[in-house]
Amino acid sequence: MEKRPFIIDCDTGTDDAIAILAALYSPEVEVKAITSVNGNICERYVCRNNRNLTALLGKNVPVARGAVRPLLSGFVNEGHLDDTHGPTGFGTIQLPEAEQVFDPRVASELIYETAVEEKGALELLVIGPMTNIALALVQHGDLAGLIRHIWFMGGAAVGGNVTPTAEFNIWVDPEAAKIVIGSGIPMTMVGLDVTTKAIMTREDADALRACGTPAGQVAADLLAYMFTRNHSGGEDALMHDALAFAAAVCPDCLTCRDCFVDVETHGQCAYGHTFVDQRGRTGKPANVSVALEVDVSMFRKWLVDTICRSAGEK
């Protein structure tokens, strides 16, 4: 089976890390690179997390540094926002410091050069703010025609988590999201109103730990941090970003609808809002496949099974 080339653009992040694990052990996918962006935590921690995780797993995947701030007036994370992801993004887990050097290219250039090399087959898993992708599109007029599909975690058909109408990844850099969503690239949006249903359990963590691999151990430890976080009143073990990857390789996990989507970049109340026209009232053609429902049991099984494929690499 010919593997699909992917770049993962992320702000790793506890659930980002679990999405990366799933992608690295998915039989359908070849991860060509991982690019880092400001978001959940500051970019200097994100890039280290990506480098240290791939090194721990023995994966020779290029890791590139990316945008440290949004295009215009969004949110700049100078350290960490709260305890959702811990002080450096991996909860309380300390990964060994890797000797691997970062790719010399900045994220936007790596994305473009890889897209050219893959001749239209490259797919992007975008699980953080869209700054790097927007920069690449602005810098390279032919890039939109070289990307097969974008799968992104961001926005919501209904509601938000930073404001009543805005989800974090979009809110951090709404101008970037507006550029990307309006680019004409085929894309699938997996938003907050769906990802908040994708909750892992202690049984899932036990199954991952029983794999007996570094990947299973890291995933189980991250889930353990999430369970403790939830017990203290924080977010549950929500798989926001892994669900976005599931849209790409386990499509039966999700129910989607083609809609016109745009991003609000002005206004005190609606800044960062993803406008999803589910009823076609604008008369504008659909530009995004929007996830609306998730089969949680199917998703949980897929995620555990995929990461546990790491046992085959012992």
How does this structure look, described?
The chain contains 11 helices and 9 strands. By secondary structure, it is of the alpha/beta class. Helix 1 (14-24) runs antiparallel to helix 9 (214-231). The two termini are 22 Å apart.
For the CA atoms, what is the radius of gyration? 18 Å
What is the 3D form?
globular
Low-confidence parts:
none
The total count of strands amounts to: 9
Span of the ends, CA to CA = 22 Å
Spell out the key features of this protein.
11 helices, 314 residues, 35% helix, globular, nine-stranded mixed beta sheet, alpha/beta, 18% strand, 9 strands
Offer a concise description of the structure.
Helices cover 35% and strands 18% of the residues. The chain is of the alpha/beta class. The chain is globular and about 50 Å long.
Question: Helix and strand layout, with pairings?
Answer:
Elements: E1 4-10, H1 14-24, E2 29-36, H2 43-56, E3 63-64, H3 107-118, E4 122-127, H4 131-139, E5 147-153, H5 168-172, H6 174-181, E6 187-190, H7 192-195, H8 202-209, H9 214-231, H10 240-249, E7 254-263, E8 274-277, E9 288-294, H11 296-307
Parallel strand pairs: 1-2, 1-4, 2-3, 4-5, 5-6, 6-9
Antiparallel strand pairs: 7-8, 7-9
